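User: Sequence in, structure out. Go.
Assistant: Echoing your sequence, followed by the structure tokens.
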Amino acid sequence: MIRDIINLFNERKSLDIDEIANHFNITESALEGMLKILINKNLVELVTFDCVSCSNSCGSCSFAKHKDVYKLKK
């Protein structure tokens, strides 16, 4: 499964956790552990964007799920 995730990143470059979970038809909680392994192996990095929809930065808006994106490290 980890190799399949890496192959998906090679195809799409950057993905959020929802996109990856939907692609493999697994839960986000199951995927989080695999992403942590890839991050610890320095293969994937988490890119966090600040919430730009308002000044509250609470993460509860419709844009909040798009803040955190994973991508392959170069």
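User: And one key feature?
Assistant: DSSP finds three helices and three strands in the chain.
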